[in-house]
Amino acid sequence: xxxxxxxxxxxxxxxxxxxxxxxxxxxxxxxxxxxxxxxxxxxxxxxxxxxxxxxxxxxxxxxxxxxxxxxxxxxxxxxxxxxxxxxxxxxxxxxxxxxxxxxxxxxxxxxxxxxxxxxxxxxxxxxxxxxxxxxxxxxxxxxxxxxxxxxxxxxxxxxxxxxxxxxxxxxxxxxxxxxxxxxxxxxxxxxxxxxxxxxxxxxxxxxxxxxxxxxxxxxxxxxxxxxxxxxxxxxxxxxxxxxxxxxxxxxxxxxxxxxxxxxxxxxxxxxxxxxxxxxxxxxxxxxxxxxxxxxxxxxxxxxxxxxxxxxxxxxxxxxxxxxxxxxxxxxxxxxxxxxxxxxxxxxxxxxxxxxxxxxxxxxxxxxxxxxxxxxxxxxxxxxxxxxxxxxxxxxxxxxxxxxxxxxxxxxxxxxxxxxxxxxxxxxxxxxxxxxxxxxxxxxxxxxxxxxxxxxxxxxxxxxxxxxxxxxxxxxxxxxxxxxxxxxxxxxxxxxxxxxxxxxxxxxxxxxxxxxxxxxxxxxxxxxxxxxxxxxxxxxxxxxxxxxxxxxxxxxxxxxxxxxxxxxxxxxxxxxxxxxxxxxxxxxxxxxxxxxxxx
Length: 598
Ligand code: GDP
Ligand code: MG
Hints:
- This protein is of the alpha+beta class.
- 25% of the residues lie in helices and 34% in strands.
- The strands form seven sheets. Strands 11-10-16-7-8-15-12-13 form an eight-stranded antiparallel sheet, covered by helices on one side. The protein has a six-stranded mixed sheet with strand order 2-3-1-4-5-6, with helices on both faces. Strands 21, 22, 23, 24, 25 and 26 form a six-stranded antiparallel sheet that branches.
- β10 (224-227) and β11 form a beta hairpin.
- The protein starts with 5 loop residues before the first strand and ends in a 5-residue tail after the last helix.
- 46% of the residues are buried.
- The chain binds guanosine-5'-diphosphate and magnesium ion.
- Keywords: Cell membrane, Elongation factor, GTP-binding, Hydrolase, Membrane, Nucleotide-binding, Protein biosynthesis.
- This is Elongation factor 4.
């Protein structure tokens, strides 16, 4: 039957180990994409992915492969992101597959996300095929990499496929091994339909497009379907697969991975992880969905023009269809007006959301400084859940703060142990264990505050270890810490969106950093602007933005009206991402200075 000839697999790896490039070679060797259409990392089709050279979104492609046994197989390949911030994309991809290609860079060996992605694959009961990539590099060490896969990841690696995605060596062998080593989908064609929604996006003509994996039964155009959790019913108007362009089909059967259009306009009814069944002959139960993702950091998003608040809401809803890890709820700020408190899996995720809102939805927004979630205990016994520092109205009423801690795992060549210990301890990291992975690499474990990991830790780690360190972390729980809320006053007025929560030991250092940085990013105005950092009523640091010396228009004395207009336009463009707070114009960067980012 056709089912025996289907192979569904994800490509998983640590970032930069070559997932997307291997996907390129597979598409090329199977003639799925012609030479003329081929470009590097072809599945990274979003602008942001191409500019940053990383995969952000999962991508599901159908292709055909004629194997040495003379039979033609249908592969559904799902490329996934490697960065920790997008592990939610990976976990959803895996639930749509029977197997995973585990890519390991032969010059880098096993890294932190190699391990965490294998755990995700094992949780989903997948066949794992180890693939050692970049064997063309002079620094490639295949034997050591095999040993690491066995010792650290704990799966047999003797039989690993050896490839170079750069030269295409070994890729034909890889295609054969996908056929022989990954199991076909279970034959549940005669069962009632269950199809898992693993992703979705909004198309302005078609409405919501669902990406599904059919686990049992057959779906056809014209079928009446029910989403089992939301209980909503729709008619299938169109279905098909991506190869990588959309190809329409009349049906998707058990084992297939494809898209469904059903005239869905009410976005709020759609949840990834929901199960599609037939309204007439429903399945008894829904498939196991996904764990909700837990945001790690929160930030406010505000429209620069307050009248755009409804557009922002609609855009966030549409974006959430394609980014299931994003959360948001309305909030108000004295300084910024109406906006949303948004939750993200990390700062890269946060930056990507900001960029997608601006590019795909053409919005001008201000994003406030990110904050983790705190538990705050007041003297009167009340407990506050705080993901925005301005929720603490009166610091003098706070008895204790608790903050999230993580278990952090750092893999690094042993020559850098000293540097790692130094920067980690500076971030309030508490040493747990150290283990030699082989002759020259170690795994260090630390407990440390999540807020410190987010605050530049990874960048410092990378730069102090020449890029060799890899990091993985997960929340371990909440612990009491000696924290305070720091306010920022512009022109004597506290600006709620600029407050932050900091450790008492670093109050004066951080206060100074913030006021100095703000001084450089807030443009000069007609008057002098004092900037102060304060704990309660105590000022801990101050600086001043001097006033303009000259009026810009004074230069255009006389009649040159076009020049005058040009200057005004230039000023306006410069204001694009500025928000008037009281009488002070504050640019986007100001909010990021709080977190030491820019
Ligand atoms: P991903 O993050 O796992 O998707 O990795 P990419 O496919 O984006 O590759 C990361 C980098 O490694 C890119 O610069 C690729 O050109 C490079 N690369 C991938 N495979 C190979 C290979 O086999 N040999 C060499 N020398 N470079 C490779
Ligand atoms: Mg990639």
